[in-house]
Every structure is written in C-alpha cells, then in structure tokens.
Specification:
Blueprint (H helix, E strand, L loop, with lengths): L4 E5 L5 H11 L4 E5 L3 H7 L14 H8 L4 E4 L2 H6 L3 E4 L19 H13 L4 E5 L7 H9 L8 E5 L9 H6 L4 E5 L3 H14 L8 E5 H32 L3 H9 L20 H14 L3 H32 L4 E5 L14 H10 L4 E5 L5 H11 L8 E3 L3 H4 L5 E4 L11 H7 L5 E4 L6 H7 L2 E3 L4
Parallel strand pairs: 1-2, 1-4, 2-3, 4-5, 5-6, 7-8, 9-10, 9-12, 10-11, 12-13, 13-14
Helix pairs in contact: 1-3, 5-6, 9-11, 9-12, 11-12, 12-13, 13-14
C-alpha cells in the first residue's frame, strides 16, 4: 500500500516528536497528529515555538520547518482517520489503578478506545501501527476490536515500538540504534511491514531496520526498558555499599564501565529512575510473568523497583535526619523537578517522592526547575497526596530566590545549568551551616567544600 496520508492519535511525548521527524524526512506524505486535548493541540499550533507542549532540544526547529507544510495538528480525529492509509496509535498506557492487575498491569482503555474509533470510522483498508508501549499480544485485542464491525475492511496491525530517551528524542529519532517493525507473516502482513519500512528508509540505514513477528516486537520494548532500569538499580544498590565501605561510586562505576562487555551507559548513580516508562514497563513485565506462573522471573524483575524505591527513601531520610540532628530550620531547597535534564516531563520523578516524604514530616520546600511550571508541580503533588498542605511548597523562577532561609539544598535533576551557578554567591545567601545533598553527583565536591559547603553525595 502506497502511503500518502498518516494519522497519529496522541500528541504527547512520543506522537509529536516522532511525527515531526517522519514529516521532515517524508515531505510527500501528509501527517495529521490528533488529540482530544484541545489545549495541547492549540499549544502545538502556537506561534510561540518556545512553549510547545513537549520540550525537546532541537524540536522547535523541526516543527517550524514542517508544520503547515505536511504536518498538521488537529482535534478532528474522525476526519484524520478517514483520510489516512496508516494510523499510529500513540496514546498513554498507564498502570491500572483498579480491577484485575491493579498496580501492575497496563491499562489499555485508551488503546481500546482508539481501536473502536478506527473500526467505527474507517471506510477503506488501514494499516494500524502500535506506537504506544503495550504488553505482549496487545495486537490480538486490537485485531479483535477492528474486525468486530464486519465491514469487509482489511486492517493490518504493525508493532513499531519507540526507543526514545526524553531529552535526546530528536537525536534518537534522527539516528536510531534500531527501528523494530513487527507484523503478520502473511502476504498482506509483509506488504504492510514494507510500507512502513519504506517510510523509515528515507533516513534510516536498511541494516538498522529489524522486522519481526508482532509478539517479538511488543516484548522487545518492555524488556529493553527493563534492562536499562536494571542497570540503574544495580549501580544504585552499590552506591549504598560504597557509603558503608569508603569506596567511591564514581570510581567504581568508571572501572565497571571500562569493561567492553558491560559499557558505561546507565551506570550513573542517582536518587532513582523516573519517567513514564521504566516503572510501568517493569510492573507490566512482573504481571505478565506472574500470569504465566513464572514467580521466580517475576520476583527477579520486581527487585529492580524495590531498590529504586529504597534509593528515594534513603535520600529523603538522610535529609530529615540531618535536620533533626543539627536542629536546622525546617526549610529545604529542591533543585530540579523534571525526572531528568532537557525535558519538562515530571512523570515518576524522584523529586515528587522526596518532596512527599519531607512534607509529611512538616518540612517546607522551596522548589526550582528551569522548565517545569508551578502548576505542574502542584498537580504532581496533589496527584500523589490530595491532602497535601499547599502552604508547605513555594515554587520560584530563580534559584537565588529559592535558597533564602535554608540550610539545605537537595539537587535531584541533572540540569547542566546547576554546574555553572555562582556557588560562592549562593553560599553567602544561605543559612549556616550550609549543606548540599547532590542526588546526581553532578557538582564539583572539592570546589564546594572549599567554599564552605558540607557536601553529601550518593555513594561517596
């Protein structure tokens, strides 16, 4: 099938950037990104390219190039579905909060709503592409819904998981490690696979495009995230051991990473991993394993989350313990709210859990993040604790204002700008003694201690 029009349902962190690059590299294909969120679509269509709903370095330049040329953002989902030959489903798949699988299984209600709408609206054959992260064999559910209307329409389902790291999404899209496309081992299935392969071949080398069956493609995404999270929890578990033995986690990490069989990626210790994928995907992997009776497999992967939660808890406990021990003022400055640098995404950010822990102990928080808004910070806190005392939180648009009347700075997000601050000026404004809890081992310990700070890193 020759693809001339693409519809992408979901204008979030995956749909927006992905379709922007596909549009840039395929100027002869018209792409419409649709969403029921009118405010989000309006932001994508705004003339203020610095306030797009998703912040990614380099993305505003791509949007400027392709928006209005062959990339469009709309709330008219029905029309976009009707006029497309290929439909990407790129909606959220959160962890279930009720019913069977609560707290572990992925909630596929948005996927199912999309499939129902596609089935109801479609008048011609469609290729439906899973872009959202889904449990293995989700495509069976989608196929059942699509074929339930008996219109005589041929629906081909493909799995094309995203492997984007927020903060480097545009780079990852332009130069992917691999592109996985899963489909049926039938003539029509292979034709559908080839239609998507041709789109990626406009900029991705052929040897980096891997075609598989549907189940392998779906499971590859879950396990890739689980392996990355496993590395983070592994190095974080060693950071606590380093603190007890006198070893330095930065030196240990460097030594481990120099082994070519291991490599250095994802060996930086932190307060714990966050983001929309890692915890959700591991929970889903645990749930799937248990559903097949694989208890030992499930227990293995679940331990990654146990270590991750432990890392956040012990970081928070250190801060509280110091306040009590030294009888310090009950104010803490938190630098960074996004789950990592170069994104405004706060989902599962360690800062949220550290803040919640401290607020429950009546500690006041002064918060600064260069890309996260005050409204988002309060939304995150209300979501995790709807009885939170809002007076315990003050959000600032300047780090210098943030540190007044505090003894403690807790650095949680690894924004590069934090390294370039005038720390001597900050030290002079703080209450004494002044402490820095560096949750990313981002700062120069010797420099800060020479200024007068008490520096407390992780694993050091």
């Amino acid at each position: 099938m020759k693809i001339k029009n693409i519809c992408c349902i979901g204008a979030g962190y995956v749909g927006g950037p992905t379709m922007a690059i596909i549009a840039q590299k395929n100027p002869n294909i018209n792409i419409t990104v649709v969403d029921i969120n009118e405010k989000r679509i309006a932001a994508w269509n705004s003339d203020n390219f610095n306030e797009l709903p998703v912040y990614e370095p380099g993305m505003s330049d791509v949007i400027k190039e392709v928006r209005g040329r062959n990339l469009f953002f709309s709330t008219d989902i029905d029309n976009a579905i009707i006029n497309s030959e290929m439909i990407f489903i790129s909606v959220n798949t959160p962890t279930k909060t009720s019913g069977k699988g609560k707290g572990a299984a992925s909630d596929l209600k948005y996927i199912e709503l999309c499939a129902n709408q596609i089935a109801e609206i479609s008048k011609t054959d469609k290729i439906v592409v899973e872009k959202s992260t889904v449990p293995v064999r989700t495509s069976e559910k989608i196929r059942k819904i699509l074929n339930s209307k008996n219109k005589g329409i041929n629906f081909q389902i493909l799995s094309n998981p995203e492997f984007l790291a927020e903060g480097t999404a545009i780079k990852d899209l332009l130069k992917p490690d691999r592109v996985i496309i899963g489909g049926d081992n039938t003539k029509k299935g292979e034709e559908a696979i080839q239609s998507l392969v041709e789109i990626y071949l406009q900029w991705v080398p052929k040897n980096k495009i891997l075609t598989t069956n549907l189940w392998s493609s779906e499971l590859s995404k879950l396990t890739a995230n689980a392996f990355l999270a496993q590395r983070i929890s592994s190095i974080n578990s060693l950071s606590e051991l380093c603190e007890k033995t006198g070893a330095d986690i930065k030196e240990v990490s460097k030594a481990i990473g120099m082994d070519l069989r291991i490599g250095s990626s994802f060996l930086e210790t932190s307060v714990g991993f966050g983001g929309s994928c890692f915890q959700k995907d591991i929970l889903n992997l645990v749930y799937i394993s248990k559903s097949f009776g694989l208890e030992k497999v499930a227990n293995y992967w679940e331990q990654i989350l146990i270590i991750n939660n432990h890392q956040k808890d012990r970081f928070s406990k250190k801060i509280h313990s110091l306040i009590n021990k030294e009888a310090l003022i009950n104010n803490v400055c938190i630098l960074g709210w996004a789950f990592k640098k170069d994104t405004n995404d706060t989902r599962e950010s360690a800062s949220i859990y550290v803040a919640d822990y401290l607020i429950k102990l009546n500690i006041n928080l002064k918060i600064y993040d260069p890309k996260v808004t005050e409204s988002q910070i309060f939304f995150d806190m209300n979501y995790i604790n709807d009885e939170m005392n809002k007076e315990c939180i003050t959000v600032y648009n300047s780090p210098l204002n943030c540190i007044n009347q505090t003894n403690i700075i807790a650095l949680i997000t690894d924004w590069d700008e934090f390294k370039d601050y005038d720390w001597e000026k900050i030290y002079k404004q703080m209450n004494k003694p002044a402490y820095i809890f560096d949750g990313r081992n981002l700062l120069d310990r010797e420099k800060l201690e020479s200024i007068g700070f008490n520096y407390i890193g992780i694993g050091r």
